[in-house]
Amino acid sequence: xxxFRIHRLPEAGSTNDLAKEAPIWTVIVAERQTxxxxxxxxxxxxxxxxxxxxxxxxxxxxxxGTVARKVAGALSDVTGLPIRYKPPNDLVLTGRxxxxxxxxxxxxxxxxxxxxxGVGVNVNNPARELPSxxxxxxxxxxxxxxxxxxxxxxxxTVLSGIERAFEEAKCQPSR
Length: 175
What we know:
Elements: E1 5-9, H1 15-21, E2 26-30, E3 51-57, H2 64-79, E4 84-86, E5 90-93, E6 96-108, E7 111-121, H3 134-137, H4 141-145, H5 151-171
Parallel strand pairs: 1-2
Antiparallel strand pairs: 2-3, 3-7, 4-5, 5-6, 6-7
């Protein structure tokens, strides 16, 4: 996590949009997002209590599934919970959505210049407080563990998963 510069905001439209304009190795963390989005432009509900971040990293651009798998594994290792990756980009716990990953590339012409990795994790935002039908489909770490979680530890854990995905992508043959 040493290479990341973290910028914290009380509110952002979309952390991915901000990270697209940020230098490489910058992480934008917002306490809430007003225009968070998931795959296919779907609205991503990002209330206070969750971890909403986007990291700008250099190429190569890791596959979305690789990032989700690495983040799920890192979170599982730290919490002891059976957090899994569910294609195409979900983090799930006991069949309910804990979070998601969105990887977007920034290009100059056809050349990738940056990957923006957005990760949202329900941490201390209880599912019962989410709007219907999300409240039946989602789960948070505090729901599963029965107490509020340390946000900085979860942030470090997610960033370690992103770094693992980046290192794996560097080892892959060029596509």
